[in-house]
Amino acid sequence: MKKHDIETPYVSFTHYKKKFRLIGIFLFLLPLLSCSFKKTTIVDSGFSTGEFKASAYSFIGEDDIFSALAQINVFTTKSFYPLKAALTLKRPSYLRLELLPVIGVPDFFLTASPEILKIFIPSKGEAYSGQPTISNLEKFLPWPIEIEDMIMIFTGTYPLFKESNILYQAHRENNYLVVEMNSSSGASQIVWVGENNKLLKLVRKDEGGEELYNVKYSYNNDHRNFPEKITINITNETTSLSVRYSDIKIEKAKDLSVFDLTIPDDVKEIILE
């Protein structure tokens, strides 16, 4: 037998052994290489432990009272309601709304606190009071959103869940931080945050995964990072409204009596169910 006949199998085996090693190294590096090409990366910064706070993405504190003039445009499939209002808000559930006519004094007053909702319509000599529920609020305002959620949205941040054990997951899409929030009830919410912690958009879903509403925030103003315009689209109601602010004031809360509407003695008060 010739020498090369003995060595050929050995040379061939060594040759393929090197190839196998190279393939193994490539397969090991493949997941790492593929991650570098993905546009979405997971952000591990404590979100799963609930460290993501609404206060971090807003310039209004829990002890602040927000007041402003607001141009509120309500759109439905059949009509359009342009409203001018004086708004006073305090988180989590304090509200005062006065609708302003073109000429004259306000003819619609609404106040809400955690305990009670009050409405006064001077031209009709009517006053109402009851629990601050969605069903009572819908009798007077054309948008079906809980007062707590509405106040959080109107003050430039996202609504909170009533549950305490919320799962947070975050990732980046291009220049945006996207945070997904899932509650134990099954309700969920996704928020998009831009540069300088500006909240850009949110989508709220119910326990069945159906979208309830979505909100967009616009920042073309001189109020730093506070949105000049907020647009809310109510999914099932085919209703949308936009809120554009002017004369914004943010002050420390000292007196909450502004959120308790005084009804004149000669006006009969109707109790809402």
If you had to describe this structure to a student in words, what would you say it looks like?
By secondary structure, the protein is an alpha+beta fold. It contains 3 helices and 15 strands. It has a 15-stranded mixed beta sheet with strand order 1-8-9-10-11-12-13-14-2-3-4-5-6-7-15, with helices on one face. A hairpin with a 2-residue loop joins strand 8 and strand 9. The protein is globular, with a radius of gyration of 28 Å. It starts with a helix and ends with a strand.
Order of helices and strands: HEEEEEEEHHEEEEEEEE
Structural class: alpha+beta
Strand portion, in percent? 35-45%
Q: How many strands, which pairing sense, and closed or not: the largest β-sheet?
A: 15 strands, mixed
Whole-number mean pLDDT: 80
Give the N-to-C terminal Cα separation. Answer: 106 Å
Number of strands: 15
Radius of gyration (CA) equals 28 Å
Outline, from the CA principal axes? Answer: globular
Strand order of the largest sheet: 1-8-9-10-11-12-13-14-2-3-4-5-6-7-15
**Tally of helical segments:** 3
Low confidence ranges: 1-20, 22-51
Q: How much helicity do the residues have?
A: 10-25%
